[in-house]
């Protein structure tokens, strides 16, 4: 792919962001691109229920939501046959290139967007240059548009190289809700992978910087709490209400106040709240979507225990009930030195790469850890690579954007590392 | 109208609840009923922009919302010509019956529903008897379906009586958002009204009880607060966020903690909250719809001042901005003795009425006070009549329902009082 | 007593304020004054355990506190014999004047001060005129210095009048903690009282105004909550703490947020808080002294129930225990019309009294209601009289003071009413 | 000193705990011990204003508090001449041993206790064995009694050794309030120190374990906030109050909710709160003593900024003022490898030491960092040594105690390291 091709694909995906398990257009676009560029060279191209272990998908949205995005993809011109295979939230794909004897190398890229509105500030380049999100309330605010582009291009590059072995690229859905990796980690496709690379762009590293091995993934757990009280006329009988919003507000205040822990970093966020029906009705229901994280699984469990205590007591304080639904979870993981040193070497020789960090901490979470652990438990190696990019707004904010030059750096480093892995069988 | 007619009309309205300014079907149904029952006997029948002073409508919903309900009404078979006159939220009607010399008597009934889901418990009669709400998320949980029915029937009854004078019935939209009465109070229709009656069913009084004059309306004021902060990755950079949900939760906790006041009753309610976009994003926006009330306008103003202080400080605490949009307001009012004694007398002679209370306190708010004050300021009298009904659930709750026998009591008392007013010109 | 005598006694008491059950000097000063002015004319003068039913004393302070104030009284020169009779918090006195046949009239005055520091602002008259509190942290901020003075003077005045019957003056301790009246209401002294008057100065009424009968006493209940958690090094192991101060702060926020009640006024106050030991230790204990009130006893019970729920849940939220100790309570009461009309008549004829209100609402609480109810339950009458006084600061604030002219108004009205009761036996 | 001497000295100090700047008895006891054991062998023994730079003392208590503890020390039999030199909070001592040519080695031990009540549980050894605290509300809950003992013994041991050089032992007051080290770091005594050792016992390491070099000191900052509102009668006029306790509770809730930071550990604690005067008075004042910490000084500054914002907004929310008084602060620091390796070597050869950790993180704060930085800035080395001890309760808790066997380990390792430093001049 030419540099123009890369920009063009990335911008088309950026314009059409689709949140977790709703990547209908995105998957189709990737499949089209692979078929037109690689055609019969691909040994296998799995989409739909074949691509993942469906029963392990987590954090699936409701039917209405799935249908809405499905229909949008149809309207956008996605081929009906392909679309039907994705129906019900079977998004994502696994592409396999067989190139003779050698190790099986995996590359994982995630493809989903976030449920947030993109900035329309003229200083925001996607707005100025005409590739701002065309999907209301959704945005590629974490660079997965670039990841998908890298995945396609690396396949093409390896197909043209003298790599010996097998390359599998996992186009993974639903990373943002910590929902997709597990279903790929439980599928048959991961079983024979000897070395797995995963990639993320940005992460506060500037263009020209590569982090060979990222560690410090926070274990993460999502949950949803529904508070149920009793409504009443807010003017006539406030005392007859059991106020679910008051319970939720008490919970939010105290969730952020869970004590810090000496064993390492913890996190808590009340990310989505809603409740009540009208100004003059004491609210009888409220909903809270939250997440907790910990540097280790134990720390995540500590946060979960304290969170449940807070939710339960806040409900009780206002004579409400609370139902806490556990959500998706991901463990932590580490990058293996064998792969880290290969990536560092290759990066050091890559044009445009000015600085190589051996290791850095993520300080966030990633469900790639499911895939990394699966490979490591099978005796293989895994490595999570960071590709620096100048990003004006922070990850997950309305003004996030990338420096498109860094897409090329990612492709060069990853393709180079895959070739080296083919040779060295680490 | 026969008792069956009354039940049938009330249940049809109950089945088709429409919230404030969205009473398209409801208005059309009332107009149809009036035309088929009274036809040319009506001197005037105002609908659409003619029925009210449009620029004084408060708390109008957005266009998308209006369109959604408009289209639902069309689907339900409302006549296109009539519907067009209501377009843009010009709901409600004023019907005028001229019967020779005599005073102009007004009767105000409100017709809107609440934005809440009706119970589907089999013990809830509308569910059991098949007239539960067919509009998702909307419900007649305050008896306005009965009020509209009473309005139609009283017009018919007076048309058949020997009442001398003019009767105007105000089918008022948008009471629940305190949004409709002002636009009728500012219209020409109220100017020549000498005596105004308003009516409410229930209010914790059982079937067979009539309250001749209700007082103690709490002055009320609505507001909407939008908190704006800054999003950030909740795992990666929680410190970079400015958390709008945390600000809102702090506000909710402290709003309910505004000190009680020695001068009389006050109220506060955070009726609707929402905020945030995803579990892993520090929320950059949150919205709060609240109301405050006071036994006097001064007490309401006290609550408004304290509320603004809480909202402002809560935003500042979390480095957010807050924009507070004032909403609808209604004053307090009192029932005039001249009318109260007439209503009490008539009620005392009405079959089925077992107990008459001269006076009672509402303890809630009502925008009927705008109309009462308008008439009183013109030198006329006003009286707010309570019609007892056994109601299993409280007002504004999912199991609210009425005893349909009380509809007849309301019609008898009001029609009787109007006839007496015609004779006595109080 | 001359006007100068009145001012002199009131100022001496003002200078020596003693909180509940610590009125050693105050009681002694009253006893001295009575003995020197009335001597053998008094049929009985009860002090110490004889004056009240000791086992019904509520809200007694600890021994250390009692000893501290006892010793201060000794240092101030109180006679040892008398002091010994008061030991252990048996403060207050009952003086009985027998003047032949006739009804037994009671007059109740309270004598305790508040635990607060008096203003030393030169604009505060007690500071400017040299009779500011000499007891650190205590102040007559509610006029009980004037009440005690009135009690003494009325006795003297009746002794000089042609009143026929018996007069008992109850110099009651510990009103501010709602702790003293019950022990006098349970004593034998109240049993034969036919008519009881109680008096309060100020209450936002100006000098020259008399309220013949005060009603609207809020029922009140005190409580003390002790939160117990677990300490930990705040830097080293914050997660090992169970934070009692965090629990208490959550409780305070939610106590003030207990829903208002449609049946009438309620109150809640977290009046005293303390907790923790050092900046670098997670607090393992915290204490909260609170009170709730209600227009009726039912409303007070509603507030108690909600308060207990808040305290319990706040403790649980932070994995703490809470021990809730119920404190003193007082019911509500009403003034009997028979006495109200006598007081109103007398007040109307009293020089200096410019305005007489038949009735007014207190809007606060008073344990005089125990005595009023005791007399009423025995078939007698009771009446709570308000004596207006210009007071620059509000009751219970650091700048409260009275207009000393109003002391005379109180004496004239009460003595006049007692004489009239003697004649009319209402 | 024999093992019995060590236990005896430690227990005497444990029995007589004195909080920051009040170590009158403690200092005197140390001075006595030094004089009786070393007599003229000490080149210098500085106490009082000579021992430290008085104007740099931080977090001094008030005069009343100083006087109270001063008098207690006098009562306990401290020599008057010595006591006078300590008057006004000039506690602590610096002892200097000159032993010919060689480097100047410093050893810093802290000597103050905590303001908390010691457990009287029979399972708590100091209670069972009769050396529980005899100072009400004070306790050696962090092992400084052992540190002082180690300081005395190391001096004696070095005096008996063939160490060549100068040894200065800093018996530092007021570590717990982060108040004493700065005044010693600003004194002349630190200027010529080439190598500084500091020591702490416990820190969750068991008996037999030595940490050669501790790092990860959290920078810390204390502050005190006074909220001022306006009092009012809680029953009569709650709306006239400006509630300082409500403001403080809001602040506490939101302080603990300050966002965690991706750059590293942060801490916040509302360690002491108090407010209000009586149950029936709206509180007009409240006080909060808090601390914040950060892995770096920048993180501490982040916490300070957010804390000030929370305090200011919480006051404003309840119409109160807040005055924030900055308190003591300490920076972070690291142990120098040159000394760490010496300590590790010596420890490895010390009988009773079963495990040596090169490095560990403190996870708390220490004002020893002032002294360490002063030496390092002068071109010297510093090292903070951890001496494991089995401690049943956590540091700063009521059941903290040490395994007295570890006192000997500390003395052996430190004396051995000092001798080696004398030889190797690292």
UniProtKB/TrEMBL annotation, chains A, B, C, D:
- The residues listed in the UniProt record as binding Mn(2+), with positions renumbered to this chain, are 142, 144, 176, 200, 396
| Record's keyword annotation contains Metal-binding | yes
Q: Which cofactor does it need?
A: Mn(2+)
Q: Does the keyword Transit peptide apply?
A: no
Q: Which organism is it from?
A: Natrinema salifodinae
The cofactor note from the UniProt entry for this protein is: The Mn(2+) ion enhances activity.
What GO MF annotations does this protein's record show? dipeptidase activity; metal ion binding; para-aminobenzoyl-glutamate hydrolase activity
- What Pfam families does the record tag this protein with? M20_dimer, Peptidase_M20
> For this chain's UniProt record, which GO biological process terms are given?
folic acid catabolic process
Query: What domain of life is recorded for the organism?
Result: Archaea
Q: What is this protein called?
A: Aminobenzoyl-glutamate utilization protein A
Ranges for domain Peptidase M20 dimerisation? 224-314
InterPro entries membership: Amidohydrolase, Bact_exopeptidase_dim_dom, Peptidase_M20, Peptidase_M20/M20A_hydrolases, Peptidase_M20_dimer
Q: What keywords sit in the KW lines?
A: Manganese, Metal-binding
Q: Which GO terms describe its cellular component?
A: cytoplasm
């Amino acid at each position: 792919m030419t540099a123009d091709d890369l920009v063009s694909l990335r911008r088309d995906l950026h314009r059409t962001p689709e949140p977790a398990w709703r990547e209908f257009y995105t998957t189709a676009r990737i499949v089209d691109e692979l078929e037109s560029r690689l055609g019969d060279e691909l040994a296998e191209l799995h989409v739909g229920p074949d691509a993942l272990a469906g029963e392990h998908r987590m954090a699936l949205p409701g039917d209405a939501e799935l249908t809405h995005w499905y229909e949008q993809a149809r309207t956008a011109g996605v081929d009906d046959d392909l679309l039907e295979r994705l129906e019900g939230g079977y998004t994502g794909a696994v592409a396999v290139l067989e190139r003779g004897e050698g190790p099986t190398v995996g590359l994982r890229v995630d493809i989903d967007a976030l449920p947030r509105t993109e900035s329309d500030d003229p200083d925001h380049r996607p707005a100025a240059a005409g590739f701002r999100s065309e999907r209301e309330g959704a945005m590629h605010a974490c660079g997965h548009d670039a990841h998908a582009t890298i995945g396609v291009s690396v396949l093409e590059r390896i197909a043209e190289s003298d790599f010996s072995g097998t390359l599998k690229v996992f186009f993974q859905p639903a990373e943002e809700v910590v929902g997709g990796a597990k279903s790929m980690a439980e599928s048959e496709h991961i079983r024979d992978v000897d070395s797995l690379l995963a990639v993320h762009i940005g992460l506060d590293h500037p263009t020209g910087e590569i982090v060979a091995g990222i560690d410090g993934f926070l274990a993460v757990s999502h949950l949803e709490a529904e508070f149920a009280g009793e409504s009443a006329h807010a003017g006539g009988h406030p005392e007859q209400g059991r106020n679910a919003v008051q319970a939720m507000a008490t919970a939010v205040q105290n969730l952020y106040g869970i004590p810090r822990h000496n064993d390492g970093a913890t996190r808590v966020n009340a990310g989505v709240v809603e409740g009540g029906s009208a100004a003059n009705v004491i609210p009888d229901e409220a909903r809270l979507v939250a997440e907790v994280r910990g540097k280790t699984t134990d720390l995540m469990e500590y946060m979960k225990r304290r969170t449940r205590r807070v939710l339960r007591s806040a409900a009780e304080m206002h004579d409400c009930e609370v139902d806490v639904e556990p959500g998706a979870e991901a463990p932590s993981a580490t990058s293996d030195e064998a792969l880290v040193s290969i990536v560092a070497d290759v990066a050091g020789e890559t044009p445009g790469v000015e600085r190589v960090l051996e290791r850095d901490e993520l300080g966030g979470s990633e469900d790639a850890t499911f895939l990394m652990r699966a490979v490591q438990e099978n005796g293989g190696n895994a490595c999570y690579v960071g590709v620096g990019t100048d990003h004006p707004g922070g990850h997950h904010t309305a003004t996030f954007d990338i420096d498109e030059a860094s897409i090329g750096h990612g492709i060069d480093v990853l393709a180079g590392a895959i070739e080296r892995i083919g040779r060295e069988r680490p």
